[in-house]
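quick one: fe (ii) ion bound model?
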Amino acid sequence: MNILDSLKEVTGIGEDNKKKAVVNAVEDMDILEKLKQEHEEAISLLKRMVDSGSGAERKGLLKKIKSALVPHLRAEEKVVYDAILGLKDKQIKQDGNEGYLEHGLGDKMLSTLSKIQNAMSPEFSAASKVLKELVEHHIKEEEKDIWSDVKKHFSSDQRIEMNRRFEAAKKKIMVS
Ligand SMILES: [Fe+2]
Ligand SMILES: [Fe+2]
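yep, here:
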């Protein structure tokens, strides 16, 4: 092999490693950090939907909220809630059950909103306000109670592994 080919090969390997490093950096994230990012995104989209003065914009935002929120809820249940529900602690099990119930209410509000034709109607305005308040309340409690359960019972390596499973689970969720 001549020097040029060797250099190409070396550079090629270098590029591969760079790509791998980027992929690892994304995956090597604590799940709580990832959840925080998604919570902030959801709250900001919900605020925009409630404040919007255009029906078309509201409908577009509802679509975005659904496709962000539904995979988040299902993957969070599978990876985070089911993990803490497996622990032998009554209070933690209650936190997990409360989370599941609130997720169910969120699903219900999303389907209510999807059925309302006129996005500038008082019905849509009311339902979007209820969903926003529900999500804000849920996130506040989840970050306080569930996250302290997770921090207490799962190491940072385990939380990185949970994030990998969270990302994989989200990809399998179909949003209708
Ligand atoms: Fe969450
Ligand atoms: Fe949640």
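The CA atoms of residues 48 and 55 lie 12 Å apart.
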